[in-house]
Every structure is written in structure tokens, then in C-alpha cells.
Amino acid sequence: MNKSIIALAIAAALPVAAQADATLSGSVTTKYSNSGVIDTDAALSIASSEVLANGMTATASFTILGGSTNSGTATLAGDFGTLTVGNIDADGAFQAGDSGSVVANTTEGASTTASTVNGIHYAGELAGLAVAAQANASTGAAGGAATETKSTQVSATYDFNGLTVGYAYASAVADDAANAGVTAAQTAFGAAYSFGDLSVTAGKSSVANEAALAATYTTTLDAIGFTATMSKSGAGVNSHKLVATYSLDGVALTATSEKGKQMAVSASYTSGDLTVTASRLNNGSTDASAALAMGNATLTAARDGSADATSLTYKVSF
Predict the structure, then answer these.
(1) 305 with 281: CB under 8 angstroms?
(2) Cβ-based neighbour number of residue 74 at 10 Å
(3) Contact at 8 Å (CB) between 64 and 70?
(4) d(Cα 107, Cα 59) in Å, to the nearest integer?
């Protein structure tokens, strides 16, 4: 899918009120590690947004990362909803309908939090009914030799005075390189309800009859916050997680206790332009960093305990 051609076609077909101003931003990052490796990365982004004569809003963005990797999107938003073409969330339409949070978010690797592919995505809402649909193209996110499985996703959610029910369907795997997430011919049905500080979700997926039930309670006492979560999967796996946070006068503390894992603790202190952070992860390793902000530049010294590595990073943004 040629993102540039699609964006130009949309722009040519719509009445534009005036020529939009473009915003240019980017960064250059140089990292030196104790192994002797020096790594330099650069990113350049161009973004533009314009309100059209018919009241709709058109936006476009394009990002060039280090090497030949790039990504771009064009969107059109109005009373009908929002249409996006180009680089999109690999399972955005499916997750919009997974009210019971029974299917994990599609990720490209164990250390990533999301996945993107080339495609077309639509989202809209009318009288409490929200719908989403998307088509994932066969080209990879970089638009090069990487290929993806063509797929479609649809979902719908409805809000009944605080009770949200949803349905989602995907025809094929969301991302061929996915570490987890949406698989082929998968459906999900679920519900979510919140009352006060307590929220409850329940859902079921068609894959191996997966099911999930979870309850989360969140409260704050002065500068201390607490979040407790209990969940149970269809395989009978029970889990609990307790998170306590404290924040006051530049000091932030977080302690996380999760079933089957060591307690994780992190602390940070900010004074002026300097931020110092130390963390003990749930695998027993310890990380530490010190970051100094200098206008549009940041100098960071870090220690990665799990990898037994020390690094010095200098980043300039514009």
C-alpha cells in the first residue's frame, strides 16, 4: 500500500479551506555502552492538520526513523467518525470491542507494548453504539520486503448506563511477527462495569474457550495511592496484583506485589533539571539512571542490571 498516493488522493478529493502549515520535529540520539559499542539513531517527523471548508478535519503525519524504516498516516474526522489510512494499530478495531479484556494486546515482541501494520481503520459512534472496522494490508509496517497476512477486524460496543458490552471479530492474525495477541478467526465477547472505585470485567474468546474475570479497586489516601487487582482465566489460573504509589515534593515511590513474582520497587527523585531513578525489578535485577535535561538536549547515564550493562546517552530534540 502506497501511503503517499492514498494521502494525496484524499487531499485532492476534499475541499480545503486553506493551505495547512506543517510542523517539523525530530531527534538525534547517540548511545555509548561499556561494551564499546556506539549507536546513533535519528528520527524526523512531519505533521499537518487542517479544518476543511465542510467542517471536517484532515491530518497527516510522516516519520522517518534510522535507516530506511518509515511510517505515515492520513486521517479524516467529522460527524461520521474518523477514517485513518497508512500505519495503524495492528489490532485496534478488535481491541475496541474486547470489553472483557480477554485477549492480550498484539505486540511485536516480548519487550514491546504494541504492534503496527499498514491498513485502513474506521471508528464511529451513534446513540451510545460505538463501531470500529479495519483492513490490514499485506505489506509490512516499513512498506518494504516484510509481509503481513491480509485480514479484517470488526467490533461494536454499547454503553448501558455504565455497563459496557462488546463484541469483536478478526479474520486472521493481526501481525505475523506478533509475540502475543489476536489470532485467526477469533471472536471475543465481554462486559465491563464500574461503580465508585471498583471496576469489574468479564469476557470470553473463541480460541480454546479462553475466558477472563477481573476486579480492580483503586483508591487514594493523601499522597499514597493503592490499586488492587484480582483475576481468573479460563484455564483456572488465579492472579493478584497490588500496587502502592507515593508522590510528594519531587519524590516518587512505587511498590508492586504480584503472585508468583518477586516484589518490584522503584524510586525517583527530581530536583530542577536532574532526575535520579533506581528500581528493583520482579526478576531480582536492579536498574539505575540519572538524567540531566539541558533545554532541548538530555544526557542520561544508566545501569541495566539484567543485562549487566552501563550506558551513556545524549539526545537532542527539535
Answers:
(1) yes
(2) 23
(3) yes
(4) 26
Say if CB 83 and CB 120 are below 8 A apart. Answer: yes
Model confidence pLDDT, tens digit, residues 66-94 = 666 778 999 999 999 999 999 999 999 99
Chain mean position to CA 126: 25
DSSP assignment of 131-199 equals: EEEEEE-SB-TTSSS-B---EEEEEEEEEETTEEEEEEEESS-S-TT-SBS--TTEEEEEEEEEETTEE
Query: In the numeric block, which cell numbers belong to residue 135?
Result: 483492513
| Average confidence (pLDDT) per 10 residues, the chain, 318 residues | 44 50 91 89 92 93 77 93 95 96 85 86 93 91 67 96 94 88 93 93 85 92 93 72 93 93 95 96 92 96 90 95
pTM: 0.81
User: From CA 148, how far away is CA 240, in angstroms rounded?
Assistant: 36
Distance CA 41, CA 30 (A): 7
223-236 confidence digits (pLDDT tens): 899 999 998 875 55
Contact 226, 241 (CB under 8 A): no
Is there a contact between 248 and 242 (Cβ–Cβ < 8 Å)? Answer: no
Contacts 24+ apart (CB under 8 A), 231-236: 234/204, 234/208, 234/209, 234/210, 235/210
- What is the dihedral angle through the alpha carbons of 213, 155, 51, 119, rounded to the nearest 10 degrees? 110
